[in-house]
Structure formats: structure tokens, C-alpha cells
């Protein structure tokens, strides 16, 4: 039959290659077809080569790692693609099927392998593979773009948008050297904000009108692809230089626009993305569309970020205005307010700011930051702004970012605010609305401060004039007063003092405090002060006077609830009558005694309708040398401590100054008790009544007592106007004599008493120290001798009387009599 | 005893060897991620971007099963994976059996690995051709009979089923690895089984490994090719038993 085949011929010339190999791959039989396809001689293969030896090196690996194990495990392998290397090194794409034959014991015997020519199929597969690889690359780009879009949608600021965009070309196209430039509309320039360059973005800004490629792309708004340096040479010679310097062979300049992809009309260019490739590269259309899409997405994100920025800036501005308005209320006075303003502006808003106020012949100036602009030019501009009342936001050419704004209140130009915006901020012109608002608020705050200062000055003047009246003086008494205004910028208080002679022999002293502050308080204080002078009479006395004051405030409402400490002193009898209407108790010191508060004769504040309206008074006999202190609450009241503590501190301080001369005493007390920083006015009056003609003290035989005696003695000497040298001499001599009496007379027996008597005349001071002790012992003589020598050195005359104890009489001639 | 399969296959390749040790040892077989019946979701590109990631997997198996005195039998690339694991936690390992090990497949200066860089690239292309053929052949069958998943198991060339994408990356990691510097760090005794005519790991590479692994034993086998565990299981089993 014609279709009957010779099996041998079928084997040799079958339409496929046929190989028989040993289990280790050694070829033992091969057909003609395979030899014809590959060009090998049978003798080259049989017994000499393994099948894998005919494969390409890559396929050899595949053969060993996949084909051989599979064949061993499965017994057959189907349709494995191998490239057979032919005799002429040409590669023949094939598909291979193999079957492993085993002997009856199951041991591998031989492998039969069929080889099909798969040239066409493999070509087709390669096409498929290429298509898949292309699809994968495209997917990679799309994924990179999606990643960027996701990042863009999460980027709230232009800087973050730029940061996301600048990474995209490397991810999508393996690009190198990406830079993002953003348009700064205020300054009409392009600023590099992000770069993949490890050194960061370029630092030179490009004016929008520049001929540089970035500016040109921003103006034209369309995508520029520069495939070669030669192409760059033609269109952007400068870009060609940059490409050569950085090793870039192809470059892309992409505008970031708000319009839809590819649409340039009506689209606003917000920035430019530039990137390059280190090899020459043409971008195909799908790639270009991805690039355009990137530019469009970035543009929209920038647009959104710009709106965010704008909203954020508005919010920050509103907060700054609110905070500044609040902060400007803090200092009451004009210059502190002006300083506060410029210090808030620099560096938050401006790098330099100055407030000039048209007050006084020279004007007032507060400035902060720097550098200051040219002074002559600034003075010219200030003059123009003051004259026109209109702000100048720029000075074209000279100092474009320096603005001068008028500070107005009630239509009047109070002064100017000049400033230069901080670098990197929007220009003053761009911030015109904000700056005008700021200047308006500042004008008002400064005008209020000016009015306040004016009123405060008037009130102080009024207060000073009211308190300035001459206080009486007399050999029988002395009055010392002190008024200390509050250190902080508060209005004047309503504290006052007064001392006047009701009759020739009757002295009145007053300290009072009116409720409230400012001009009203000062005026009321004046009225009350005058009323007391008018109402005081020889017959009335303090209680009656207060009752009359109660009636007086029915007519002068602002004086209601004023407090008054009032005392009358009969200078013939040294008897004092006092009354306190809601006021702090007077503090009295008598010679040789401790200070004590006068707590009787207390009643409510003037005009208070609470309780009984009957006023009471109290009498106290005073000895010569007594001192009476009247004061207002500012002296002892502190928020940080209870009032009791204040009383205690005052009494202690007052006692410590018992030997201080009267002049300066009240001031010294105020300084010690309230210091320089106090929130309230302080008013003090100290009355010193007569002087002790004789100082007489009896002290226990205790060395501690010597210090107290010295204080009393010094105070007595000072009150008699004894010169310093004599005072020192008498104090030394007296101390030594008393010490000797304690040490040698009583030998420190604490029950011993030492009497000291001091008298004074116009010519001399005489001191007598007496003890009733028993002087003896040889050791005592030595020390005693030293003390005596000191006494003799400083005193002019010293006598000893040794009956019934010892009396030392010492005399010192006063300087005036020497 | 842990048996670790090499690149291109799965634990099936131990089918003639592992049962021989089941009577005397606790035998642990596993598939590397991407191979056999492993959970493909566990694949993380970052973790498996070098052999250390695979070595970490071996150590995790040891920890989870709390294995001690481990005899680790690694074929091909798993030989180096075992070396890396034993360097990191030597206290867990008693002995290593390295079948066809290679610390570096690509020639480098005087070092002979057996392959040029272009060979490896070509091998990756070869993978692409074959997977393309497979996926087009397998996919319709599986998709046409979703109610008969066992069909998948009966498909041609289904032994050593591996995920093509992962296999491609594993191939890249395997054939571009260079672990020559790790060899002197190994303190665990090791047996090197070197086949005759192994194109993947030629005898010169086996000698290199032997020279750089202190206290290692080299056994030259009569078996040819790269997979003596399949082509000469008896000789392989005897060599391992002789050593351990």
C-alpha cells in the first residue's frame, strides 16, 4: 500500500528530531531530521555528547534544575522549550518531549526525546512576551503615577506637592536629576523648591521674564522634550551646557498646570518639573501621555495647596491680629505699647519694623530687627505718608519690600509704622489688607495709650498739687511724710496725708484713702482733705469730725467709703485723741517702749451705712519723744501674705528704726516694706512729738540689753541734733561703762540693774551710769582699765563715784561749743 | 533531619531519599515559599531579596518545632541556605549535608563558578519561555473544570509546581548570590556530596567549598548531573548514612 512506510525511514526522516540517550544524557541514537536541522555529524554526537551539551548555557541550567528532576520523578516531560545550539552556533528554538524508559527492575534504562522545530511558535511567543513586558512596564509607570497621585492628594502644602512630584520621574521612567520650580507670583519669579540632587535645589531664582529654559517653558505652558544635547543646542544653548555638565543626554521640561492634560489655553502654569536621562532617550506616545498627566495632576495639587496655603495664611493672620490686639492692651503706656508692637512684628512678620509717633518736638521711635533702611529716604517717605494718611507698600527700586503705613485714630495721623517683610514671605503689597488692618488696630491702641498717659499725667499733677501744701512746723513737734506712687502703670490712687494746726496748741494729723483711681479719685481726695480742714475745730474732736464727714459724703458721693485715720494732739498737755474710720490702726512708739498699734476708737468707713452711725474716739497721753505713724494699706498689704504678717513686719521694721532721725524715716520705711516694685500707692505720715529732755533707762545686767540701749540713746541724741562725732563718742563711752558695770559690778548676775541717765544742754551731753554691784578681783582691773582708757579718750570729762556701787559720770562738749 | 529542596523543584525531590531516614530520625520536609504547596501570600519581595531571608525561614521552622541536633540536608542553593542558618544559630545544628553546593555561580576573576553573567540572563529568558508555554497550557484546563481541582495535580510537568513570578525572582537571587565570604564562618561539620559532570556545581566549585569550610568532608559521587537524590538515590543515601 502506498501509505505503508518503512519504519527505518520513518525514524530517520520523521518530521521531528528523535534522540535516544542514556539516563545520564549521553546520546546513543539520533535521527537524520535532527542532524539536518542542527548540522551535526552523527559521529560528533553519538557516544560523545550529552543532550544538555547541545543546549545554550541558560537552558543548561533549566535542564538541570527542572527538566532532569521532572523526568526522573514523572517519567516523562512535555513541551519544554529549549534552544539547541547548532553546529554553526546558530540557535534552533525547539519544543522537547521526553520519556524515561525503565528496565523490568524499575531502573532507568534510556530516555527517548522528540524535538520539534518551534521557530515560528517561539517567535510568536517572544512577541507575546515582549507585549507582556511592555504591558508590565506601562503598568509600572501607571503604578508610579498612581503612587504620586495618592501622595499629591495627601500633600497639604506646595512644598510637599513638590516633594512628591520630584520623585515621580525616577520611579516611572528611571529618570535622573529631577527638579521642581514653583512660580512665585508676588515676586514674579521661579524658585527651585525640590530636587533629587543630594545638594538640594538650586539657590538662584529665575525671573519669569528670563530667557532661561525653565522660564520659557513656564511662559509657554507646553511640554518640551529635548532628546539630545544637539537638540538642546538648537533651542536652549544654556540647557545644553547644563546637560553636558551633569552627564544628561536627554531632558524633559514639563509645566505643572491647572488645565486639563494637553490643554494650554486658560491654564495657569504653577511650576515646572525638569528631569533628564543619562542615555539618549525618545519617549513614546504612551510615555508622553503619562508625563503630561503627571504635569496636570501636580498642577491641580499645587492649585489646591495654594488654596490651603491661602486659607492657612488668612487664619494665621487673623490669629496674629487678635493676639496683637490683646497683647497691645497689656502695657498701658505709650512707649511700651509701641515697643510691644514692633517686637511682635519682628521676626514673625517682618525682618525690621519701626513705629514713629508724632509726639513731642523730636517724635518718639521704637524699632526692632534690621537692617534698617536708608534713613534719609525713609524720612522722606514717612513725611509723605503722614501728610497723605495713605500707606505706601513698596518703594520701587530702592527697597521694594519696605512699606510705610500711617497709624491713625479718629482721622488723625498719630505716626507711622514702617517695616520690611521677612525674607521668604509674601511681599508687603501682597499683604496690603492684612498690614492695613494691623496698622488700624495699632493706631487705636497707641492713641488709647497716649490718652491714658495724658490723663495719668494730669492726675499726678493734680495729686501733687493737692498734697504739696506746707505742713506746719514747731519746736514742739515735727511731721515727716512720704508719698510713693505705684510702680506699675496704674492710674494715681486716692491716698492722702495732711497735718495742720487747728488752734495754736492743737495739731491735727490725717492719713486717708479714697476709693477708686485716676483723676476722679484725685479730685475727691482734694475735696475730702479740704473738708477735714474746714470741719476740724477746737471743740469738736475726732468723733464729731468723722460724723460731719459722714454727712459731707451725702453730698459728695465719690467720697463714700473713704477711710480716714485722724488724730488731734494737745501740744500743751501732750494728750492725743484719735479715731479711725475704716482705716488701718496708727502705730505708736514711746521712748524706751516697743511699737504698739492703737486699736481703740475704730468705726466704719466714711459714709458707710452699715451699723451704728455714732463715731467714737480715744485718748492717749503721750510722752515727749513719742512717734506716731499713720499709713495707708499699700504699705503692708500683700497678696502673698496675710494682713497679720504685714502688721508684724511693719512693727518690727519700725522698731528697728527707732534711733533713725525723723527726716527720711517714712521714705526709708516705704522702701524697706514695699521696695521698688509695688502695685499700689503708699502714703505715710510720721509725727514726732517733742523730745525727751532727759533720757532715763534702767536695764538688766545682760550684754544683750546694751544694743537696745544704744538704739534708744542714738535716737535721743539724733533728735537733739547732736553732731555725729559727739554721738559716736557718747555711744561708745556709754556702752563701755555699762559693759563694765555688767561684767565687773555684777559679774553677769542677770538680776543686777544698771541705771543710765543722759541729759543735754546747748554746750554738752552728760551721761551717768550707775550700778549697785561689788567691784573686785585683780583680773577685772586690766579689762576695766582698757574700757576706761577708751572712755577717757572720747569723753572730755569722766568721774567715778564708789559709794554703794559705782557711778560713772561722763561729759562731752558738743561741737558747736568746742 | 531537615531536607531542603533546591531551586526549580519542591520537597518531592526527596521522595527516594527521605523515607530511608524516617526510622532513625525525625524527618522534616518543607517547601520554600513560592514552591510546592507553600502559602504564596507569605512571599515578601524585600525579605526574599537575598538568601538570608530563606535561611530565616529554616530557623523559624527549627524554632517552631523546637528542633535540636539538626542534621540539615540541603540540595543545590539550599546547601548555602543551610550554611547561612548554621552560622547564625550554630547551637541548633549537629551536621550539614551539602549536595551540589556553590557559593557563587558566576565566574569572578580567578574564581570559577561555571557561568558567565550573560548565561544567567539567558536562563531567566528560558524561564520566561517555558512558563509562557505552561501557563497557556494549564490555565484553560483548570479554568474549564473548576469543580475538579485534582485535574491540576494530573497536569503535565506538575511536579515541582512553582509560582512563575516567585520562581523567577528566586532564580535571580540564587544565581547572582555570592556567599564565598560566609564559608569560613561556619563551625558546624559538613559533608559535601559532589557529583560527576554537574554543570550547575562543577567539581572545581565543590573543591572550593571543601577548601573553605573548615572540617568539611568531600565525597565525590559516581552519580552524574545535579540531582543525585533523584538519579542515584541509593548512592546518596549511603553517602549520608556513612557520614552521620
UniProtKB/TrEMBL annotation, chain B:
GO molecular-function term, one example from the UniProt record: hydrolase activity
Q: What InterPro entries does UniProt report for this protein, alphabetically?
A: AB_hydrolase_1 (IPR000073), AB_hydrolase_fold (IPR029058)
Report the coiled-coil segments: none
One Pfam family, short name please? Abhydrolase_6
Q: Does the keyword Hydrolase apply?
A: yes
Q: Which keywords does this chain's UniProt record carry?
A: Hydrolase
Which superkingdom heads the taxonomic lineage of this protein's source?
Answer: Bacteria
- The record places domain AB hydrolase-1 at 2-239
Q: Which family does it belong to?
A: Belongs to the AB hydrolase superfamily.
Protein's name in the database: Hydrolase
Q: Which organism is it from?
A: Winogradskya consettensis
Amino acid at each position: 500500500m502506498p501509505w505503508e512506510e518503512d519504519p527505518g525511514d520513518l525514524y530517520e526522516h520523521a518530521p521531528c528530531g528523535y534522540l535516544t540517550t542514556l539516563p545520564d544524557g549521553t546520546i546513543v541514537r539520533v535521527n537524520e531530521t535532527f542532524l539536518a536541522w542542527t548540522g551535526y555529524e552523527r559521529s560528533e554526537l553519538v557516544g560523545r555528547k550529552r543532550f544538555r551539551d547541545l543546549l545554550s548555557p541558560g537552558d543548561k541550567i533549566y535542564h538541570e534544575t527542572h527538566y532532569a528532576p521532572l523526568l526522573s520523578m514523572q517519567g516523562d516531560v512535555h513541551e519544554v522549550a529549549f534552544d539547541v545550539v547548532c553546529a554553526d552556533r546558530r540557535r534552533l528554538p525547539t519544543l522537547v518531549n521526553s520519556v524515561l524508559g525503565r528496565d523490568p527492575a524499575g531502573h532507568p534504562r534510556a530516555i527517548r526525546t522528540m524535538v520539534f522545530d518551534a521557530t515560528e511558535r517561539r517567535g510568536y511567543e517572544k512577541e507575546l512576551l515582549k507585549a507582556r513586558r511592555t504591558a508590565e512596564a506601562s503598568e509600572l509607570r501607571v503604578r508610579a503615577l498612581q503612587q504620586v497621585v495618592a501622595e499629591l492628594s495627601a500633600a497639604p502644602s506646595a512644598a510637599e506637592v513638590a516633594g512628591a512630584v520630584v520623585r515621580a520621574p525616577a520611579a516611572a521612567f528611571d529618570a535622573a536629576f529631577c527638579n521642581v520650580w514653583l512660580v512665585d507670583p508676588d515676586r514674579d519669579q521661579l524658585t527651585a523648591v525640590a530636587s533629587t540632587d543630594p545638594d538640594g535645589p538650586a539657590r538662584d531664582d529665575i525671573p519669569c521674564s528670563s530667557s532661561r529654559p525653565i522660564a520659557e517653558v513656564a511662559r509657554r505652558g507646553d511640554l518640551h522634550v529635548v532628546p539630545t544635547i544637539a537638540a538642546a543646542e538648537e533651542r536652549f544653548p544654556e540647557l545644553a551646557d547644563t546637560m553636558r555638565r551633569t552627564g544628561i543626554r536627554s531632558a524633559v521640561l514639563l509645566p505643572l498646570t491647572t488645565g486639563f492634560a494637553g490643554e494650554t489655553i486658560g491654564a495657569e502654569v504653577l511650576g515646572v518639573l525638569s528631569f533628564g536621562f543619562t542615555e539618549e532617550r525618545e519617549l513614546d506616545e504612551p510615555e508622553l501621555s503619562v508625563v503630561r498627566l503627571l504635569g496636570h495632576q501636580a498642577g491641580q495639587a499645587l492649585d489646591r495647596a495654594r488654596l490651603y496655603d491661602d486659607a492657612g495664611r488668612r487664619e494665621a493672620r487673623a490669629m496674629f491680629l487678635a493676639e496683637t490686639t490683646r497683647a497691645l492692651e497689656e502695657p498701658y503706656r505709650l512707649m511700651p505699647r509701641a515697643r510691644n508692637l514692633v517686637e511682635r512684628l519682628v521676626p514673625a512678620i517682618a525682618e525690621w519694623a519701626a513705629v514713629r509717633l508724632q509726639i513731642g518736638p523730636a517724635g518718639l521711635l521704637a524699632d526692632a530687627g534690621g537692617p534698617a533702611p536708608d534713613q534719609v529716604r525713609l524720612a522722606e517717605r514717612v513725611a509723605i505718608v503722614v501728610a497723605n494718611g495713605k500707606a505706601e507698600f513698596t518703594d520701587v527700586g530702592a527697597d521694594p519690600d519696605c512699606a510705610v503705613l500711617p497709624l491713625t485714630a479718629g482721622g488723625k495721623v498719630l505716626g507711622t509704622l514702617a517695616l520690611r517683610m521677612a525674607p521668604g514671605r509674601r511681599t508687603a503689597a501682597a499683604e496690603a489688607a492684612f498690614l492695613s488692618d494691623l496698622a488700624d488696630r495699632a493706631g487705636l491702641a497707641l492713641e488709647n495709650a497716649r490718652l491714658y498717659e495724658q490723663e495719668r499725667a494730669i492726675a499726678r499733677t493734680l495729686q501733687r498739687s493737692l498734697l504739696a501744701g506746707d505742713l506746719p512746723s514747731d519746736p514742739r513737734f515735727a511731721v515727716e511724710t512720704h508719698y510713693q506712687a505705684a510702680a506699675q502703670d496704674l492710674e494715681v490712687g486716692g491716698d492722702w496725708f495732711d497735718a495742720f494746726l487747728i488752734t495754736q496748741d492743737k495739731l491735727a494729723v490725717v492719713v486717708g484713702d479714697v476709693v477708686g483711681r485716676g483723676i476722679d479719685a484725685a479730685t475727691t481726695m482734694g475735696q475730702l482733705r479740704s473738708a477735714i480742714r474746714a470741719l476740724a475745730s477746737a471743740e469738736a474732736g475726732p468723733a464729731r469730725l468723722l460724723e460731719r464727714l459722714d454727712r459731707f459724703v451725702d453730698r459728695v458721693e465719690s467720697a463714700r467709703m473713704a477711710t480716714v485715720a485722724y488724730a488731734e494732739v494737745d501740744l500743751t498737755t501732750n494728750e492725743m485723741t484719735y479715731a479711725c474710720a475704716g482705716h488701718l490702726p496708727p502705730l505708736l512708739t514711746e521712748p524706751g517702749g516697743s511699737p504698739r498699734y492703737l486699736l481703740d476708737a475704730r468705726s466704719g468707713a466714711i459714709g458707710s451705712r452699715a451699723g451704728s452711725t455714732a463715731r467714737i474716739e480715744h485718748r492717749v497721753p503721750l510722752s515727749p519723744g513719742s512717734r506716731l505713724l499713720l499709713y495707708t494699706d499699700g504699705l503692708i498689704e500683700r497678696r502673698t501674705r496675710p494682713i497679720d504678717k504685714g502688721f508684724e513686719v511693719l512693727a518690727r521694721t519700725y522698731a528697728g528704726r527707732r534711733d533713725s532721725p525723723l527726716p527720711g524715716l517714712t521714705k526709708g520705711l516705704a522702701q524697706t516694706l514695699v521696695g521698688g516694685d509695688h502695685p499700689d500707692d503708699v502714703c505715710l505720715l510720721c509725727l514726732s512729738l517733742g523730745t525727751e529732755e532727759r533720757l532715763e533707762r534702767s536695764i538688766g545686767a545682760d550684754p544683750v540689753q546694751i544694743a537696745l540701749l544704744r538704739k534708744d540713746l542714738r535716737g535721743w541724741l539724733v533728735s537733739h541734733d547732736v553732731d555725729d562725732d559727739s554721738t559716736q563718742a557718747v555711744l561708745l563711752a556709754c556702752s563701755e561703762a555699762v559693759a563694765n558695770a555688767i561684767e565687773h559690778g555684777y559679774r553677769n548676775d542677770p538680776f543686777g540693774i544698771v541705771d543710765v541717765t543722759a541729759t543735754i544742754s546747748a554746750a554738752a551731753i552728760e551721761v551717768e551710769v550707775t550700778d549697785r554691784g561689788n567691784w573686785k578681783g585683780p583680773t577685772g582691773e586690766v579689762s576695766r582699765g582698757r574700757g576706761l582708757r577708751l572712755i577717757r579718750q572720747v569723753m572730755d570729762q569722766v568721774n567715778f563715784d564708789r559709794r554703794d556701787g559705782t557711778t560713772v559720770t561722763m561729759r562731752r562738749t558738743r561741737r558747736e561749743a568746742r | 533531619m531537615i531536607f531542603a529542596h533546591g531551586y526549580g523543584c519542591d520537597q518531592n525531590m526527596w521522595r527516594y531519599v527521605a523515607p530511608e531516614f524516617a526510622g532513625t530520625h525525625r524527618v522534616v520536609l518543607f517547601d520554600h515559599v513560592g514552591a510546592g504547596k507553600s502559602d504564596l501570600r507569605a512571599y515578601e519581595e524585600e525579605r526574599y531579596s537575598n538568601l538570608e531571608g530563606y535561611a530565616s525561614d529554616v530557623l523559624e521552622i527549627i524554632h517552631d518545632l523546637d528542633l535540636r541536633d539538626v542534621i540539615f540536608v540541603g540540595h543545590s542553593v539550599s546547601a548555602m541556605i543551610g550554611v547561612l542558618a548554621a552560622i547564625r544559630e550554630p547551637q541548633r545544628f549537629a551536621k550539614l549535608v551539602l549536595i551540589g553546593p556553590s557559593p557563587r555561580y558566576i565566574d569572578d576573576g580567578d574564581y570559577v563558578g561555571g557561568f558567565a553573567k550573560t548565561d544567567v540572563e539567558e536562563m531567566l529568558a528560558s524561564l520566561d519561555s517555558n512558563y509562557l508555554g505552561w501557563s497557556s497550557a494549564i490555565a484553560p484546563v483548570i479554568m474549564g473544570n473548576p469543580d475538579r481541582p485534582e485535574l491540576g495535580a494530573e497536569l503535565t510537568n506538575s511536579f515541582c509546581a512553582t509560582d512563575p513570578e516567585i520562581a523567577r525572582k528566586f532564580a535571580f537571587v540564587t544565581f547572582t548570590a555570592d556567599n564565598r565570604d560566609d564559608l569560613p564562618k561556619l563551625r558546624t561539620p559538613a559533608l559535601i556530596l559532589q557529583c560527576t559532570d554537574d554543570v550547575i556545581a562543577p567539581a572545581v566549585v565543590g573543591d572550593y567549598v571543601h577548601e573553605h569550610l573548615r572540617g568539611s568532608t568531600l565525597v565525590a559521587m559516581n552519580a552524574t548531573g545535579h540531582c543525585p537524590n533523584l538519579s542515584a538515590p541509593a548512592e546518596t543515601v549511603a553517602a549520608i548514612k556513612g557520614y552521620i
